[in-house]
Amino acid sequence: MSVQLREFTSASKPSGMAPQEGQIALPPEPTSIADTGLGMGFLTDLALKVIYFHGNISAQQISEVTKLPFMGVLDKVLDFLKLEEYIEQAYRKTASNLSELPSTLPSDV
Known about the structure:
Helix 2 crosses helix 4 and helix 3 packs across helix 4 (70-83). The protein has helices at residues 33-36, 40-54, 59-66, 70-83, 95-98. It is elongated, with a radius of gyration of 21 Å. Helix content is 41%, strand content 0%. It contains five helices and no strands.
């Protein structure tokens, strides 16, 4: 059995059109928490579980693991978790803020 997959784009076909023969009908990508059909409590629990088991993980990796889009869904979930202080955002040291680092280490280190 051969299944032909196609790239999903929201503008690829008007809604209501049946998929062509040999193609699988894919649901549209959710653009909001309501579109997922899942509650905020479930999504926060899911995000916390992924973070717990993966440790230091980026938002993109959380999106890949959960198969949920970042924009509109995970960004809102992670903002809520940060606001409620369940998670902290880790910042990478970049060339722009390296100049703010002390030039010498404290003597007690």
